[in-house]
Amino acid sequence: MARRAALLQALPSPAAESDGGQDRLRAVRRGAVPFGYLSPTVVLLMILMVIPIVMVIGYSLMDNVIMKKNPQLVGFKHYIDILTSDTFWSAASNTAFFTVVSVVAHLVIGLLFALMLNSPLLGGRTKAVFRTIYVLPWLFTVAIIAVLWRLLLDPNGVVNYLLTTTGLTGTQIEWLSSPETALFAVTFINIWSGYPFYMTSLLAGLQGIPGDYYEAAEVDGANAWQQFARITVPQLKPIIISMALLDFIWTTQQFALIWMTTGGGPLGTTEMLSTFTYKLAFTKYQFGTASAAAVIVLTISMVLAFFYVRAQRARD
Amino acid sequence: MRKKYLAGIAAATAALLATTGCSGAAAPSASAGGDVTLEFAQWWEPELPSGSLRALMDQFEQENQGIKVKLISGPYASTKEQVVAGAAAGTMSDVVGLDGAWISDFVKQGSLANLSDLMKAANYDDSQLAAQVKLNGSTWMIPVANFVYPMFVNEDLLKKAGVSEVPKTRTEFTAAAKAVSALGGNVAGWAMPLDTATPNGIQNDVMSWVWASGGSMLKDGKPYLTGNQDVKDVLDFTKALYDAGAITKGSFTMKEQDKVNEFTNGRVGMVIDSLAHVNTLREQNSKLNFTVSAIPVKDGYTGKGGIPYASWGIGVAANSTHQAEAFKLVSFLMSKDVNAKLCSAAKAFPGNNTAVPDFVSSDPVFKKAFEIYQASNVTNEFVGLPVAEDLMRSFDEEFQKFLAGKQSADDALAAAQKQWDAAFAG
Fold first, then answer.
1. How far away is chain A from the Cα of B202, in angstroms, using its nearest Cα?
2. N or C: which end of chain B has fewer CB within 10 A?
3. Under CATH, which number does the domain B151-293+386-425 receive?
4. Mutation for testing the A interface, residue in B252, B258, B267 having most A CBs under 10 Å
């Protein structure tokens, strides 16, 4: 009897069971609230990012998907084809040159202009005028930039006119059509169109550096270069790193500018990974191989994005 | 409580997003009233006078009660991408504007409906069609409007250079081009756009010379470049002009539009160009004194010349659930009066062989072009070839290497042949 009473005591009473169930339900509901808030973002990310990426990765392992009704799995064949293709490595090398030179030049020019616009030597109106002029390239769309520079760099364009009339060159230079100059020309156009991004961000960064630092440095006898190297650069470092990484990611994926100025030519000297991938997809209709090329570009971007996120965390 | 309520709304939104975002193919195009709405994707509307294509569609809707037409218009390149993507996703528009260069790939993809079957089902008399693009014995595309590419000549420049007659042979052309280039002032005899992003310069400005003299780049439907004397002669002929500085600078990245601009601005003596540009030339430079003529032939050639063309073709999507209605729209556009009206607006030659566009009799340049058109074999060997644009591009790349002196004509042709063979092998 005593044993039975003990057993009954150990078992939850119906009322207690009901309370426990409600508690659990409440806990589940409470736990579900954050997921409820997150769900629109998660679903959007799934639809716009995860599903397309997974599909492209899947395509890259298939035998010419899209053009075939029943594509077969071919494993890493497309990756091997691409990685053993001379055109791919030539495009990768052009992309590396285009990206590194663009990012470095963006940074240097952006920093110089930002320093100038932040300088106390210039009056407010002068600064406003220069700020407007310097930011102009950023206001144009890629299509406008491409058309503008195609006209300027045309053998019969303004640039050649100025060079020949001032006697700097004897003949017209085919800036975008000559294999010797085309890569430099498209890189120059990209530099021109991209430096204002750095300039405006760095200017905001410069304006956020407290003047006390420079005053203290002056009291300590630091010259202008020392102030720049010891105060300005370290203060701007987090911004510079973030922007350089973002610029790396964007520039490696630059397509429209190249396509509209040189189309990857002449003689493949401006072929980039982006144009290489586009041609595979939309002129050769090799969507499997194009997907593999896209996955390779994605991997490179992911590596850069990893460093970007790490830099952001360190900054926070 | 409020937090939970908001979270519930967020979750419901997410569910809605998921269902709409993943809903896949477009809903069948039949409205509640029982009307059928046909989607018609093409690049023609932006190239036609404003409202002219819509007016024809309104006429069609009036004549075919219960069928509505929704025009989906975009640039040429995006229409092509749209067709490729739409075919893969099963969302291709019911009726699509097509270029002959796409056909082989779209047929292979299974994205086009067999027009022979649709014509048979509709008891359509195809004898009125000027041309049909066939593959495997069936029709997949019907050319609605044809744009021929004669040679445009700046008469003032030629006169200034002491050239009294429009060149008829390659030798005469070379002499004229050199004479015009010798005028100086950044003027050149000829313009040859070879941009690889849109490599149709190979079709219009290079291979056209081969076709003009009765040559071919194919043998039994297969690539024939290695050992093809006709093609090699054209390569040598263009290289001689290139080396002599008789071609406008910047060829390697020059686009068709750049060529038109150069001619419009009176900086080039002769170009091979689409007749569709006549009005643009007149609008942009009313003082430009130009005429058109047949493309010069190789010395001693007396046969019938070929003249390149490009078409606005039309086809029906394999995934269309209203193929019969879609074919009604096709046959409407191919009917005598409508086709003449469309081609008059487009300044093109008609796809219906009984239609006569009004500009042919009213304009001397078009009249002359129509005479050339009738006296020539309208030729475009790239139509119906697999990955036609890529064939042009690979030839273009090898041709550029040849012009740059990096390889011989024979090597260029052998390299292009290798790539073309691989493309044909698929």
1. 15
2. N
3. 3.40.190.10
4. B252
